[in-house]
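input
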Amino acid sequence: MRSLRASDGFTLMELVMAMALGMVVLLAAFNVVDRAFFTNKAISDREDSLQRGRSMLEQMTRELSSMVCVGTSNAVTAADTGGISFYTYLGDPTKAATQNPEWHTLSFASGTITEKDYKVTSTDPSIVVASTPYRTATLSNVSLAKDTSGSNISLFQYYKYDPSQTGTGALLKLSTPVSATDQGVLADIKITFVVTPTGRSSATPQSTTYADDVLWRSPDPDNPATVPCAPTT
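output
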């Protein structure tokens, strides 16, 4: 009897209590792991939308900022809410007189922004553009941003200097598609779009909204009606 009393061990009640406590600890651990998985996925999605969207926006603004006239042709050849076509020069500025510019198109359709770059093979006596693009870039999972009323904000919005307020830089929004006359005096192009993480079919909290302005340096706020590409007399 004395040896039995000295034996170490657990009673049935102690064993049940230990198992119950162990289950509580395991459930808490599984909850932490589960939350960590979803948090990691959210961070990965946000990083995906940030990297893809930022790269495309920087590329678009760089090219639009470098628009150039080709002879007496407007730098912008077509402009609408979902697309723009324009001549741009991205080469060595000191060789601009001897190197041809390029013709680029940016368009939005079916949730994708597509950029196509064409070589300009000749500018004299007329402009000749290659029939096929030498480079195509796309950004998928794109949607239009919403304003405070819930209406879509166009991918591209166009502005010119207000002729009634010369010297102030005040802007007037242009109707679309932009007319040939207004294509020559474009001063500001606003870009707005939303990028959804890859693999997502609709906007999520990890989607990122991008917005930027491209101010073209050629139009003169003191002479808003002056077309930069017009021939001089």
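quick obs: The mean pLDDT is 87.
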